[in-house]
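Q: Two folds, back to back.
A: First:
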Amino acid sequence: MTPIWKDYIVTLGETLASSVDFFLQDDDGDISVNLYSGRAYTRPGQAIPVARINDLVASQLKRGLTVIGETDVPYFHARIQVGTGDDYHYAEEFYADWSYDTGFNYLTDNLNVPICDILLPGQYVPCTLQASATAAFTVTRQDLSAGDYNGDFNIDFLIYGEVQTPVNIANGGPFQTAWLNLRSYSTATAVSVNGNAYKVGGGCRQYALYYVNAYGGWDTLAVLANTKESDALTRYTTGKEYNNAYTYSRGRTNFVNELQHKYVFNTHWLTLAQSERMHHLLNSPLVYLHDVGKNVIRPIVLTGTTTEYKRDGRLYQYSFEADLAQDRIRR
């Protein structure tokens, strides 16, 4: 299994050749379908053509948020076929790790690296597993039947008890993500899964972000500080003849406006360890915004051009901007 960021060089054949035709196929699918066709030439000083196939395989890794019905393809079993026969082929498995982290081991290290451990009531909780398996969530929730009374036995002083509910959700395939919907657990106070423990809280804030981290897993960040929203307008106008003797005559018409809806997110204060994981979000090419109060998920594009890495151990707060990834107009 190879991370997609790491250069992977394939020797195209075993015999001397000045050039060869080669094809990319899905080794877990129909190998009669060529997903890519190319020709490689032997370099001076070499006897057999070679090809770096990272970019070819990367085109088959297509990420999506499954909770809104998109297809997530974080894994691909590549088959390189040389020539038109079946005399030589080569297969290797790749997964969507763009971390450039030579010390990361997908077999032992967690594919979820959340920035902080706070969840909003009603949001989704992701768990990405390296194999096709079941994510074992444990939901801690308040339960009236598990409560007790004080000495007055007055219901006004009822102390809620806590119960733990196991929730098993299949992830659906290698490197796929299982999602727990907290709307099904309105009294949840904590969630644990695959070595990560979260607290459910966050006050009155309503936005949660879902994003693909650098290792290829899905993570979430609850936006606990203020979020600003605005529309950037591009106005299109046209002029026409008019009689200025009349105060109501119009000499210019605004016939359409293009609207770019914008967000400015602010995190709560983060520790050094938490801030060191902010790059997983700020560098991510795939981010969604969940308005938890309205239960609406929208695609967004982060617009920042710099990600700052903190080093000196203080508390940090990040502010970052995003555009709604949809076109809007007013006529």
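A: Second:
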Amino acid sequence: MKNIILTFVLLINGILFAQKADSLKLDQIYQKIDSIKYSELDFMKMQKYFTESSEFNNLISKKADQGDKNAIDFLELLNLSYNKANEKHGEKKIKVIIHSYYESVGVQENFNKLNLELDAELDSLKKRKEYFEKTIINERRIIDSLKNK
């Protein structure tokens, strides 16, 4: 019984520590976002990015049609001006959304770069494979011709 109670106490302490650590990370993120100055141009870039993505629009529209409040709010946000969005949702929330947009674009760019590097490596490996296959075929021909003599 003591082991169960001890395990439970340790579990609770672990959960509390994890929540505190997550809270500290969130505070650091909010401090970082508060220090960044976003402009109407940043907001318009974000709007353009999301409105020009047909896959995103199909997905978000479908969710909005199903009554998803977040999807409805986001679609509305994409149709507001920067000043109206700040008035309605608050500057901090708009900063968080713009910051999230830039972070996701950065991740996508890194992924695309890595994908290009992997594609180049794959092409290189395919060319090596073709080279070795041709070399093996030529070597077999030489061996076969020597055997026939």
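Q: And?
A: The chain has six helices and no strands.
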